[in-house]
């Protein structure tokens, strides 16, 4: 009798705890899923083979897509990097923040008082980490890389950060761990300038003979590892990264972060640098795609996703981990270096047949691969509902039991987990400070000054003298401008757009594109 009663006490206590939502930290943290955002850089809608639009093979990303929910109307909040990342972390549209533009050595564009995904999760007892590309700015004024750099990721809620500050094509080419440059020799301080070169430092412009990858437009500043970059850098020799090892380097940190935090609920922002320029896949991936470095870099990124997956599986936490996979903006082939991306593209379609690309207000600028995966929790599905990265914060909040909802993000947790609900009705699209509007199947792009096609990157930007109106249901590749045929719809779209955005903004002076 005594034995039986004793055996029953534990399940009974557990039942009471579950029923009354016990506040024991241990139990609570066990219940809450780990959350990993895998974020690629410039990966197009057609670059993931699960989308069945291109010829590249990405088996590891496909596994997430085919066994999770693959969204066919998933959006980044901008057609460039920094604004997209701003919206992802804060749940606020980037066009509301005048500082949310492509950063070149600039200061932090997120106010430290802002609620962010890591801050919200940290408050809810998560361990929070970022490994990879940052590109949200650092510090408040001019950055001194030789002392502790703050504010940065750690002041926005990340317990651990191991980052590349801006991009692979910008100086300084060093990693920063929790605010400190990794391997910095105090006797060889780092100097950075984006206007003027330092005395006797070779540049891509003046010393092309030192280059192993030629620059095409811009990118002709300091030469590091045979590649010239945007900006000038001196010193910090021991701290400089090795480009071809970058993927392995970040992957190691990401794996260690997961292993070190496996007993807590954790959040990891795994922010891959591929396939942004300069594309420098490790030699073991060279030639794997038949498309040159861009394709090889995507195959390398796909391999990283597989490795991360195996890590989660091997330590037994794969079925308590929600993985969200996406890209910060659409694809570009030549983004500043001659690397055969254009010449060797073959039949592959990085944009998956969508119009435009990176920097564009047309669909390929912001419609990106978007996948949710949670083993034994999310059932395989394909969703055509509209979802944006600006919704991720509010949705994660709901999933972990928080009431927080961001300014622009919707709680689409049911869609992400159960393929239920309507998704978004409407969405503001953004590209280099210009905005457009999607409502249901309709897209309206207001007139903008500026070139229709960027000469440098050879992408249609979405600029024109007149309003453009498309119906994506019949015309996913935005071939037919219906604004003359359907003036009533156009008027309705303009009214709805201006209701959200205020007065139409046709200012393109921020455009860096030629
Ligand atoms: C642009 C760069 C481009 C790329 C981009 C940032 C020039 C002419 N172009 O200014 O090469 O670095 O910034 O890309 O310098 S993003 O994906 O991080 O937004
Ligand atoms: Ca990008």
Question: What topology emerges from the helices and strands here?
Answer:
Elements: H1 2-19, H2 25-31, E1 34-40, H3 59-67, E2 69-75, H4 81-90, H5 117-123, E3 127-133, E4 160-164, E5 176-177, E6 180-181, E7 191-193, E8 223-224, E9 227-228, E10 232-234, H6 246-260, E11 266-271, H7 293-314, E12 321-327, E13 370-373, E14 381-388, H8 392-399, H9 413-418, E15 426-431, E16 434-439, E17 442-445, E18 453-454, E19 459-460, E20 468-471, H10 487-501
Helix pairs in contact: 6-7
Bound molecules: 2-acetamido-2-deoxy-6-O-sulfo-beta-D-galactopyranose and calcium ion (CA).
What does the model show?
It is a single chain. The chain is α/β, with parallel strands linked by helices and 514 residues long. The protein folds into two domains: 34-179 and 245-425, Alkaline Phosphatase, subunit A; 429-501, 2-Layer Sandwich (Arylsulfatase, C-terminal domain), CATH 3.30.1120.10. Helix content is 23%, strand content 17%. It has ten helices and 20 strands. The chain has a ten-stranded mixed β-sheet with strand order 6-5-4-3-11-1-12-13-2-14, sandwiched between helices. α6 packs parallel to α7 (293-314). The chain is globular. Residues 1-7, 13-29 and 507-512 have low confidence and may be disordered.
């Amino acid at each position: 009798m005594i034995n039986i009663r004793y055996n029953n006490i534990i399940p009974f206590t557990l039942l009471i705890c579950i029923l009354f939502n016990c506040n024991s930290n241990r139990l609570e943290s066990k219940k809450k899923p780990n959350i990993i955002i895998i974020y690629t850089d410039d990966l197009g809608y057609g670059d993931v083979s699960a989308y069945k639009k291109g010829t590249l093979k990405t088996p590891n990303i496909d596994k997430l897509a085919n066994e999770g929910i693959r969204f066919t109307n998933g959006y980044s909040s901008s057609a460039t990097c920094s604004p997209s990342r701003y919206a992802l972390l804060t749940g606020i549209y980037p066009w509301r923040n005048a500082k949310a533009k492509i950063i070149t050595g600039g200061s932090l564009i997120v106010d430290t008082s802002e609620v962010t995904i890591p801050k919200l999760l940290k408050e809810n007892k998560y361990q929070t980490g970022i490994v990879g590309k940052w590109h949200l700015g650092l510090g408040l004024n001019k950055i001194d890389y030789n002392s502790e750099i703050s504010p940065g990721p750690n002041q926005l809620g990340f317990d651990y950060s191991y980052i590349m500050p801006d991009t692979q094509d910008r100086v300084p080419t060093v990693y920063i761990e929790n605010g400190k440059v990794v391997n910095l020799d105090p006797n060889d301080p780092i100097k950075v300038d984006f206007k003027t070169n330092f005395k006797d430092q070779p540049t891509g412009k003046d010393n092309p003979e030192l280059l192993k990858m030629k620059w095409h437009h811009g990118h002709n500043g300091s030469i590091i590892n045979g590649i010239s970059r945007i900006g000038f850098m001196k010193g910090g020799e021991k701290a400089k990264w090795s480009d071809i090892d970058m993927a392995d380097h970040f992957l190691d940190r990401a794996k260690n972060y997961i292993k070190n935090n496996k007993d807590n609920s954790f959040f990891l922002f795994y922010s891959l640098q591929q396939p942004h320029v300069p594309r420098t896949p490790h030699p073991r991936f060279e030639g794997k795609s038949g498309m040159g470095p861009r394709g090889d870099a995507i195959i390398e990124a796909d391999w990283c996703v597989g490795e991360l997956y195996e890590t989660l599986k091997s330590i037994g936490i794969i079925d308590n981990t929600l993985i969200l996979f996406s890209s910060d903006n659409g694809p570009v082939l030549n983004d500043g270096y001659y690397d055969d991306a254009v010449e060797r593209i073959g039949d592959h379609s990085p944009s998956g047949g969508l119009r435009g690309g990176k920097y564009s207000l047309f669909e390929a600028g912001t419609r990106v691969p978007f996948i949710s995966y949670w083993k034994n929790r999310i059932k395989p599905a394909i969703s055509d509902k509209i979802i944006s990265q600006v919704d991720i914060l509010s949705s994660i909040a709901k999933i972990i039991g928080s009431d927080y909802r961001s300014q622009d993000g919707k709680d689409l947790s049911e869609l992400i987990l159960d393929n239920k609900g309507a998704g978004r009705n409407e969405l503001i699209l953004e590209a280099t400070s210009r905005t457009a509007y999607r409502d249901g199947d309709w897209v309206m792009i207001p007139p903008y000054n500026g070139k229709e096609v960027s000469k440098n990157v050879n992408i249609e930007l979405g600029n024109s003298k007149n309003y453009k109106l498309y119906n994506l249901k019949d015309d996913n590749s935005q071939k037919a401008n219906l604004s003359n045929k359907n003036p009533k719809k156009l008027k309705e779209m303009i009214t709805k757009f201006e209701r959200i955005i205020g007065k139409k903004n046709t200012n393109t002076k921020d455009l860096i594109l030629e």
